[in-house]
Amino acid sequence: MSENRSLTTRPEQPLSGTAISEMTQRETWNKKHPPTEAVIVKDLRTTELVAREFRNTKARFYRLNGAIRLQPHLSELPAGGASVKHRHTTEAVLYIVRGTGHTVINYDGQPEERIDWAEGDLLGIPLWAWHQHFNDSTTEVARYLAVQDTFTVKQMGLHQIERHPSTPGAGE
Prior knowledge:
Strand content: 35-45%
Helix content: under 10%
Structural class: mainly beta
């Protein structure tokens, strides 16, 4: 990340005028594919994942050792693929398990910042910032492990995921 610390400030960022929530799609997917209960997950590079069409990724969510605060998930971007542009009320830390790519991050009214990443990198996603992940390889998948405070935020009734209004299919 650059020395520009503008993303560390948290300007007021209400739901956009369109308020395109992704929560219904996510909860429907989660009911079909509940978190994998585990104490340890072996080899994140090859763990089998499930298609998550609404996000243009494959994923698997985990509940490790009965966790009640943090929820990790492993996501995969296809070769040359990108996630949808979105933001969420959870903080997220991404560990790049496999591949190379970049993430674009910004708040409303601020310029986008591109952050390039590769296997072994750790990336922080600011709370409620718009972001989108891109796989820069045209031949290999990219995988990242995201750890978020989802369980805590859900218990407080504050969990929200909003899809950016410019995203194709955002109103579906």
